Every structure is written in C-alpha cells, then in structure tokens.
Task: inverse folding
C-alpha cells in the first residue's frame, strides 16, 4: 500500500512516501475499509509532524485526517453501508459508549481520537474506520471538493452553530481568512444571517473572501484591526470572534469583542499561550469558549449541507500523494486559500 508517513517528529524532511506498507484489515465487526480517492491537508498535519506534548506515534506513522473514497470492505455487523458506496469520512472518533458519546458529545469523549493524530491516517490507499463515521456522498459532489470538506467544515459548524450560536443580524469577525476552517466559519455565519468581517495579511485573500460573501475585510499588517472594528461598529465591537491563531491574534480579537461578546477558538496556529485581562472579561461579560471537531449529529448536518451544494470549501491546489512534501510546504508558508488536496487514487 502507498502512503505518506513519518517515523519520527521534526521538520518536513521527516516526510516519507512509502509503497510497501500492508493494507489495513478490519479490526472490529463494525468497521469499514475505504479505498481512498483523495484527502486534504489540515494545519493539524503540520503539528503532528513537528510533535505535540503527549503525542506518540508508531513508525511508520500514516498522516492525514480527511478522506473520500469507496467502501472496499465491511464488518459482519455493518448494516447501513455497502461495498461500493462512495463515502466521506468523519475523522474524529469517540468510544461510542461513554456518557459523552451517548449524549452526542463525542468530542468530549476521554478516548476521542483523530485520524492521523491518534489513529493511523488517511494519506494512504486504504483507511479503516467505524461504519458510524462515514457518510454517503451525492454524485454531484466531486472527490476533491469532498476531500476538502470534513474536518474543516465540521469544526467550523460546531464553532458557529453549536458553541457560539450565531444569530441573524449579529456581527462576526473571522480571523485569518484563507484557512479552510475560517472560510467555512465565514460561509456558515453568512448562511445564518450574520454580517461577517474577516482579517488576513493578504489583500488578495481579502478580495477572495469578499467574492464568497464577506461583508468587509481588514489587513492586519497594514491596519489596526481592533480600532477599525470599533470605528466601523460605532464603538460597539462585534458579537462573535472566531480566532484560531492564538498567541498573536488573541489581543486583537479581544480588542474587537463587544459587550456580552462570544469568542470561540479551535486552535493556536501562532502559539498556544494567550493573556486575558480578567477585569475586561468580567466587566464586558464576555464568553470565551473552546471548540473541537464535532459530534456524529453535527457531522450528519454538515454533510447534508455539502450534498445539497449549500456549503462548499474552495480547493486551493491538488498534489499527487507522492508529492506530499510540496503540499506540506505550501500549507506551512500559508499561501493557500482553501484546501490543499492530495490525490491518492490514479485518475
């Protein structure tokens, strides 16, 4: 089996394309095996290569979270999926039996695992997952669009719909437009009737965002974003901030947040440590919240949006699996707008 792997943490020179790995077998009666057509990169993949506290890998470790492909094998207990079905994968997997999983709170599961981070990933010709973690795709949705979708769209859906509960007429600031999570958050917030402003260090990305529906944009290299937001909102600030940057963007996000504002974050791409003046927090009655991935019902909801053609994440570029290093380099440089896709199956 061909796959993109690492055998140790470090720089991108640890990436290794292999063509000699065994095809994975079904581990449980409820598993399905998927012949992967395409996958896509997330910033998480860079973190896995570099190494994170508490993360352990078994070499050769297969990277990757997102996948679209065709069901190749099913366990004897699988009823809702058949061999030959074209499916997309939910990359976040809970135990299925704990109090959190039973109440549709799968990301809170103490055994929650993400493909490519805690379980062998999807940058390979085959991947095995529970049957509960695949969804059928409409014929109208291409492989590349589907590969670009699951992790980013699911994460954004939980942030905007479940956690921040964005409502019609609210003002939302999405930091770092260009990443797939930020783009999905912008699109979902717009669908819910919000006014959405975005930030980037690239004027070209701001223009792309406007073409997709953003109401305004700020270049944080040339503008003081918090001051601009205050000025344009009549000093009121925004109702919701989506911030996945962490260390660098956090002060601006709080500076733009209005009274009773909600800040939601799912990442720290510029660093994991932030500072918050608790006096401003309690005086303005802010809600600062984290969000990770999504539940099975949220996955079903967001895939419904994809299949209906109402929510599609732009594909930035496509690389063959064997050229995975080049794809990683593009994401590390932050050049992409939308998703960088890996073509796994021959076309």
Result:
């Amino acid at each position: 089996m061909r796959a993109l792997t690492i055998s140790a943490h470090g720089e991108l020179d640890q990436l290794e394309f292999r063509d000699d790995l065994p095809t994975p077998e079904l581990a449980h009666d409820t598993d399905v095996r998927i012949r992967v057509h395409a996958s896509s990169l997330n910033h998480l993949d860079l973190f896995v290569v570099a190494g994170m506290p508490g993360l352990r890998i078994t070499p050769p470790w297969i990277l990757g979270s997102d996948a679209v492909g065709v069901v190749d094998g099913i366990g004897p207990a699988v009823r809702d999926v058949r061999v030959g079905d074209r499916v997309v994968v939910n990359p976040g997997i809970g135990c299925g039996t704990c109090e959190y999983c039973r109440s549709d709170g799968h990301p809170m599961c103490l055994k929650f695992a993400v493909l490519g981070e805690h379980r062998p990933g999807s940058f390979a010709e085959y991947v095995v997952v529970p049957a509960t973690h695949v969804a059928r795709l409409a014929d109208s949705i291409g492989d590349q669009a589907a590969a670009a979708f699951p992790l980013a769209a699911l994460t954004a859906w939980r942030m905007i719909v479940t956690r921040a509960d964005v409502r019609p007429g609210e003002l939302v600031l999405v930091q770092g437009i260009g990443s797939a999570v930020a783009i999905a958050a912008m699109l979902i917030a717009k669908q819910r009737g919000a006014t959405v402003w975005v930030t980037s260090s690239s004027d070209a990305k701001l223009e792309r965002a406007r073409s997709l529906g953003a109401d305004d944009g700020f270049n944080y290299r040339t503008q003081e974003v918090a001051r601009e937001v205050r000025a344009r909102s009549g000093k009121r600030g925004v109702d919701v901030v989506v911030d996945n940057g962490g260390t660098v963007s956090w002060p601006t996000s709080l500076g733009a947040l209005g009274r009773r504002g909600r800040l939601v974050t799912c990442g720290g791409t510029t660093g994991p440590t932030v500072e918050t003046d608790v006096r401003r927090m309690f005086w303005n009655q802010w809600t600062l919240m984290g969000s990770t991935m999504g539940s099975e019902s949220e996955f079903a909801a967001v895939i419904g949006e994809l299949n209906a053609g109402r929510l599609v994440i732009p594909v930035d570029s496509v690389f063959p699996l064997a050229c995975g290093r080049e794809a990683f380099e593009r994401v590390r440089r932050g050049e992409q707008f939308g998703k960088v896709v890996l073509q796994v199956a021959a076309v």
Q: What stands out?
A: The longest strand covers residues 31-40.
